[in-house]
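RECORD TYPE: inverse folding
INPUT: structure tokens
STRUCTURE:
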């Protein structure tokens, strides 16, 4: 057993705050963890080195499963298309939708995202009891990613259910395999219908770009569906965890909410510190394509490698005053919550936007709020890959004096 064992076994105290485990892993250096059959890379510089060397460390097993380069595609599985491909194939696939997620395109979505965030926060007034995860963080991201993808509004709730089911196989989750397959078949049929409706116009919606790529022979129908599923999961579950973790920090860190009320310009630095301290993706896998030395240890060819983003983001060698939050951190956005190198998250600008506007709306509309449960009682996602609170019941005082 290794120091990683409590996380793999989903010990709640460890999932809430893995900092001590990560510190022990960094002290030990690169080591093999039998629980996950992988070498664990946890120090900041080592993590960066692995992420930037896609030739030596393949992404074919990013979510844990090793997929042979020449393996025939499962005609039903919704295996991630970008996450589990290497260059040059990865670069070609990424270019199909890259233009939909450029900073300028994401900035153009801001008025609509802000309006959605405002509506979701205002809706909290009418609730007899408020849970920030259930009533805000779990609702907004799927609305936003559905809008960006080009999914009809009436299907958003169904989209959220599908994304949660598709995600359930990541990070040693358990689940009903028959139900998961049913969901994959339903999702495939639904996206197929949307792609069949394409009118030939390539607009700002991602589905129109995927449809055009299919028409041009750049993607098969199955690849287009996998692409859509991947973007849905990345744009929904991880952003939900990011927003939830940010609100948890806001409620549990003494004086931070009031500080942001006094100076809203600090909200963006707060978001970067939240991403660093509470990375929604704690780590992904790689596959060693050749013998390699990392951090003074040899990783043999063919070995699985688990790259710990969450640990790299709390490495005292890279971050001053770590693990404390600093809103004046000069390199605040240099964290690896979104990865590094060729596989850096394509939707990072959109996730940052959503996190920022939600906190802006809370700061603007609320006089104060109190999280009912102390940090030690907040339930967390049962995964050592996906990281975020599952429930944040709260008492709110809106600026007009309406209490919840």
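DESIGNED SEQUENCE:
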């Amino acid at each position: 057993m290794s120091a990683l064992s409590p996380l793999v076994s989903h010990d709640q105290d460890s999932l809430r705050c893995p900092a001590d485990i990560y510190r022990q892993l960094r002290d030990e250096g690169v080591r093999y963890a039998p629980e996950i059959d992988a070498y664990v890379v946890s120090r900041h510089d080592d993590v960066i080195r692995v992420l930037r060397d896609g030739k030596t460390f393949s992404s074919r097993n990013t979510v844990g499963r090793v997929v042979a380069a020449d393996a025939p595609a499962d005609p039903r599985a919704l295996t991630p298309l970008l996450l589990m491909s290497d260059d040059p194939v990865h670069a070609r696939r990424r270019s199909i939708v890259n233009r939909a997620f450029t900073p300028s395109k994401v900035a153009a979505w801001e008025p609509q995202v802000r309006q959605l965030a405002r509506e979701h926060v205002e809706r909290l007034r009418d609730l007899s009891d408020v849970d920030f995860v259930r009533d805000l963080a779990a609702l907004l991201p799927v609305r936003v990613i559905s809008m960006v993808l080009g999914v009809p509004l009436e299907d958003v709730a169904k989209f959220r259910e599908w994304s949660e089911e598709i995600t359930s196989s990541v990070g040693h989750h358990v689940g009903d395999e028959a139900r998961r397959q049913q969901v994959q078949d339903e999702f495939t049929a639904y996206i197929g219908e949307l792609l069949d409706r394409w009118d030939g116009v390539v607009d700002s919606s991602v589905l129109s770009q995927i449809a055009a790529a299919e028409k041009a022979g750049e993607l098969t129908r199955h690849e287009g569906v996998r692409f859509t599923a991947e973007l849905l999961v990345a744009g929904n579950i991880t952003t939900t965890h990011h927003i939830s973790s940010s609100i948890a920090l806001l409620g549990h860190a003494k004086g931070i909410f009031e500080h942001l009320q006094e100076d809203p310009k600090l909200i963006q630095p707060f978001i970067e510190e939240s991403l660093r301290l509470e990375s929604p993706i704690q780590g992904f896998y790689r596959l060693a394509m050749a013998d390699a030395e990392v951090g003074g240890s040899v990783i043999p060819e063919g070995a699985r490698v688990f790259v710990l983003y969450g640990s790299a983001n709390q490495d005292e060698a890279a971050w001053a005053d770590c693990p404390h939050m600093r809103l004046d951190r000069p390199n605040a956005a240099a964290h690896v919550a979104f990865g590094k190198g060729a596989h850096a998250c394509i939707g990072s600008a959109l996730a940052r936007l959503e996190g920022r506007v939600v906190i802006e709306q809370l700061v603007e509309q609320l006089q104060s709020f109190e999280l009912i449960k102390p940090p030690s009682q907040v339930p967390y996602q049962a995964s050592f890959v996906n990281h975020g609170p599952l429930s944040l019941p709260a008492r709110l005082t809106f600026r007009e004096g309406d209490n919840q």
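NOTES: The chain has one domain: 5-325+342-398.
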